[in-house]
Design a protein that fits this description.
Blueprint (H helix, E strand, L loop, with lengths): L4 H14 L31 E4 L1 H11 L1 H21 L5 E13 L10 E15 L6 E13 L6 E16 L8 H67 L5 H37 L10 E4 L13 H11 L1 H23 L3 E17 L16 E3 L9 E2 L2 E3 L6 E2 L5 E2 L22 E11 L5 H68 L5 H36 L2 H4 L4 H4 L5
Parallel strand pairs: 1-6
Antiparallel strand pairs: 2-3, 3-4, 4-5, 5-7, 7-13, 8-10, 9-10, 11-12
Helix pairs in contact: 1-2, 2-4, 3-4, 4-5, 4-7, 4-9, 6-8, 7-8, 8-9
Length: 586
């Protein structure tokens, strides 16, 4: 079958342009603020004139404009974002920190004179995150520290410390493979599919509702035509009776009977008009809802002939098999069982003891400048001169009384020009603290350990498993109950359609018989063998038979839609493509 959506778009364009033409000469009405008649983001077309509408186009327009469909269009998108957000729990996190602290500590010690003053700057940066599925956490961080002190026992001031360290924490029992974050990823993934099936279910319900409203409007249009015809017949009968009364053929009572018949038909005509307009509004709401205003005067004329129908060869077993494969309700229930199973596996994992293994490996670095504060044991000058006895060396060679002096080290001066200690192999800048990272000379650090926690008697974990198992059984039972309900729906739909097909034949036979009886009564009246009252009675029977035939056809078309809905094939039969109907409309 041809696809519906392009036709629906073309019809909507026609509505926006063609139906508004009669109102171009008038000043457009501005709906009050907050009015539901306003169309968000666009101009509201004026629903006037007459619209010839087929069922095919009515369904296409309904998919484009129906607000119930537009509401559920958001649900799959929201569910998809929930799934993305759940996966976001495994995104790596960059972190950084900075802190400056100044400390003054009064002292009363032989090792330190005056107050101890320390100024410390620390910073850290790194990457941390959660490994998908495994549930392990990792952290790779760099730390830096600068401390300036007046301590007399500190060799360096300012002193620079740096380090890099990687840590991996691995749950072995509880949280392994079934952590909270990964379980949520699984649940939201299934939830996204459920939301798509829920949209398909709403789309099916909408198409069925449009079909029912379309055939209801078609039936009311026919009933209105029957009422108009009946009124014309009654008025003709009244005119004929008045003429007979004037020539003295009939009495005044028969004229009164004819007048009562006209009044009764006028009432029925008014009622038929009202039912038709109500049915019209119902269909407009489903196919052009956002554009319906209190002043709309659009008239919809159904173009599909309700008298055209196809006789189906019905097979309840085949229909049930289709329903089990295509019904979105059943797919939703099955995926809910899958969600329940995931929750049960998660509950069993949470019942286990907590055993976390942690391993870490890193490097440390040190640098700094010589502390200008005098050391507690006095300033250190040049190393002591060690006399070395030498023979045959004169004073020119540097001997003193036959003893040579060992050369002294180059002195290190502080900011005041005093010679002080010079720690060996220590860099003087912060960057030099990182020079030995990942080298054989680097200062390495590593650790490994485990933490075990055993809840006792673990009532929460055991109760969670029991509850999850019950939820799985409940979900499975709901699937079986839904399958049983689908069988009932299919059987009922098949039975109703079979009855409707037989009902059309019976109603048609009655209509033909009533028409013949009414014609015969008219002939008898012309020959003075009947009364207007008898003719009106026969005509009323004919109207009832015609309405019965119209109702039988409406029941047939509704039964076809109900069977297609029960089988889950209504979208395919009407050419609706779900993927094209899913995107949001403006």
């Amino acid at each position: 079958m041809p696809r519906l959506l392009p036709i629906g778009l073309a019809t909507l364009v026609w509505l926006a342009a063609g139906l508004a033409l009669p109102a171009l000469a008038e000043e457009p009405e501005t709906p009050p603020e907050g009015s539901s008649a306003a169309v968000p983001g666009g101009t509201q077309p004026d629903l006037r004139g007459e619209l010839a509408l087929s069922l095919h186009d009515a369904i296409a327009m309904g998919i484009e404009n129906n607000l119930d469909v537009e509401v559920v269009r958001h649900d799959p998108l929201i569910a998809e974002q929930d799934h993305r957000a759940a996966r976001g729990a495994h995104d790596p996190n960059l972190y950084g920190s900075f802190k400056y602290e100044s400390r003054e500590t009064p002292t009363a010690s032989a090792l330190q004179s005056g107050a101890l003053v320390e100024r410390e700057t620390t910073g850290a940066a790194g990457l941390t995150g959660l490994i998908p599925k495994l549930g392990w956490t990792y952290d790779l961080g760099f730390t830096g520290r600068r401390i300036q002190t007046t301590s007399s026992i500190s060799e360096l001031s300012p002193q620079y410390n740096s380090g890099i360290k990687g840590t991996l924490t691995m749950p072995i029992l509880k949280g392994f493979l079934w952590g909270q974050a990964w379980t949520q990823v699984k649940l939201t993934g299934i939830g996204s599919h459920i939301s798509q099936e829920q949209f398909r279910r709403q789309l099916m319900d909408t198409v069925q509702g449009i079909e029912q409203s379309y055939w209801a409007l078609s039936a009311e249009l026919q009933n209105r035509a029957v009422a108009v015809k009946s009124l014309e017949t009654a008025r003709a009968l009244l005119s004929q009776t008045n003429a007979q009364y004037e020539v003295g053929v009939v009495s005044r009572v028969e004229v009164t009977e004819a007048e009562a018949g006209v009044a009764d038909r006028e009432f029925r005509n008014i009622t038929a008009d009202n039912r038709y307009e109500n049915s019209e509004d119902t269909l407009i709401d489903q196919v052009l809802g956002p554009y319906l205003a209190p002043t709309s005067t659009l008239k919809i004329v159904p173009t599909d002939d309700p008298n055209q129908y196809v006789r189906f060869q019905l097979d309840p077993e085949s229909s049930a098999e289709k329903a089990f494969k295509k019904r979105p309700e059943l797919e939703i229930a099955r995926r809910q069982v899958a969600q329940s199973r995931i929750n049960a596996k998660f509950a069993r994992n949470q019942r286990l003891p907590q055993l976390d293994v942690e391993a870490a490996y890193g490097f440390n670095g040190l640098a700094g400048k010589t502390n200008p504060t005098p050391p507690i044991f006095g300033g250190v000058t040049e190393p002591a001169v060690e006399p070395i006895p030498l023979e045959g060396v004169d004073s020119v060679g540097g001997s003193i009384n036959g003893v040579a002096n060992r050369p002294t080290e180059v002195p290190v001066l502080n900011d005041q020009g005093e010679r002080v200690r010079a720690p060996a192999n220590i860099g003087r800048t912060f960057s030099s603290a990182d020079d030995d990272f990942f080298s054989a000379d680097g200062a390495k650090t590593w650790s490994a350990g485990a933490t075990l926690r055993i809840p006792f008697p673990n009532r929460t974990g055991r109760a969670g498993v029991t509850k999850a198992d019950l939820e799985v059984r409940k979900a499975r039972t709901q699937v079986r109950r839904l399958e049983q309900q689908i069988v009932i729906e299919v059987r009922k739909a098949v039975r109703n359609l079979k009855s409707a097909q037989l009902g059309i034949d019976a109603a048609e036979r009655r209509r033909i018989a009533a028409k013949e009886q009414e014609r015969a009564e008219q002939i008898r009246l012309e020959h003075g063998e009947s009364t207007p009252f008898d003719v009106l009675q026969r005509e009323e029977v004919l109207v009832e038979a015609q309405s019965q035939k119209i109702g039988a056809l409406q029941v047939y078309h509704n039964s076809v839609a109900a069977l297609n809905r029960a089988q889950g094939t209504i979208l395919e039969d009407r050419g609706v493509v779900v993927d094209e109907a899913r995107p949001l409309r403006k």
